[in-house]
Structures are given as C-alpha cells and as structure tokens.
Amino acid sequence: MILYSDRDDHYSQRVRIVLAEKDISAEIKESKQDETPDEILSMSPYHKLPILVDRDLIIHDPAVMMEYLDERFPHPPLLPVYPVARANSRTLMLRIDREWCPLIDTLIEAKSPEKELMKVREELLHEISSIAPTFKEFKFFMSDEFTLVDCFFAPILWRLPSVGIKLPINRHLKPLLDYQKSVFERPGFLDSLSSLERDLKED
Fold first, then answer.
1. Spans of the chain, pLDDT less than 50
2. How would you class 43 by CB atoms within 10 Å of its CB: exposed for 0-12, middle for 13-18, buried for 19 or more?
3. From start to end of the chain, where are the E strands?
4. CB atoms within 10 A of CB 59
5. What pLDDT is recorded for position 203?
6. Which 3 state secondary structure label does DSSP give 31?
7. Please, which residues have CB within 8 angstroms of residue 153's CB and are 6 or more apart in sequence?
8. Beta strands 27-31 and 2-6, pairing class
9. pLDDT for the residue 182
10. For 94, what's the count of Cα atoms within 13 Å in the CB-facing half-sphere?
11. Is the whole-model pTM more than 0.90?
12. 173 phi and psi angles, rounded to 5 deg
C-alpha cells in the first residue's frame, strides 16, 4: 500500500492520521503538489494529492480513502457500529468538507485581498467557536470515541495559527481548547505530522 501525500495539506494529513491511528503498514511518499511527477498525478482524474494505491485499487478522494482503510483494517474502528450513529458521523464530515474546508483553503491559498481574508477568518472562527459547547458533553467531536470526524477536524485546528486565527482563551471555548490539546497529544496525530506541518505549530 502506498499513499502519495502532500506534506503540507490537511486533506492528506487526514489520511495519514487514519494510517497512524490504526498502525497500518503503508509506504508514505511525501512531496508538494507542484513537485509531484505527472505520472503520479495522472493516477487521479483531478491531478491532485493525496492518492492511495493498494494493489490494483487506486483511490483519489480522501474521504473514500479513510472509509476504505477503516473497513479494510477494522481495529480500532473509526466509525460507529450503529447505522444512525454512522450516518451522523458522515453528516458531520460532509459539513466540514462543504462549509469549513473552503474557508481554510481560501486562507491557506491567500490569493484574495486582505480585507476579504479578514472576513473569512472571522467566519471560520465563528463557525468553530459555535461548536465549543458540544465538547462539554463529548470527549471527541460529537462522540465519546475518536472517529473519522476528528481526523477531518484536527488538521484544520492545527492550521489555524498559520492562517492568522488564534482561538481566544475564555470560558466559552475552554471545552474546545481542552479537546484540541487532547487530540494534538495523541500519538496517532503526532505521527501523522510531516516536518512542514510540525513547523505550523504556534510556539
């Protein structure tokens, strides 16, 4: 099994977290998107990383990769067993992909005028802050167990300081900050980080 991974990409890091959490033996070939040979990128119809190759199977969507790995290597499970809970997890992952990822991607690319980027920072901070109370009830993202939803969310949290967003330290956000600390200290998360991603951490 080979994962062609962008060393500075939150979509790639999601998959690396799953590999690390499940202790899956896979060869991880890291590069930057613009440094990747065309013969590798051509395996994806979108010419984008990450790309997962497992024998004759080629997967080019990060979410599909993550669910494939969870089913192929079922221990520890990263999706709930029961259908309703699984559907809720998939709904949360879809929300992150559709609502939050475009915001963090805009900030990472930094191609818009600064005035527009400020609005995007405010919107993303508001969105993330709004879920803080849920972490009073659950240890992880709407769950008492670490799941694929956390694999979606944690790489975004890790990148916030690098795009100019600092989570305020206050009573409202304390549950979220405690969650963030807990996830960032997980061996699977730490093992998923590339050298470039480690440098994103705010001192």
1. 203
2. middle
3. 2-6, 27-31, 51-54, 57-59
4. 21
5. 42
6. strand
7. 96, 141
8. parallel
9. 97
10. 6
11. yes
12. -90, -5
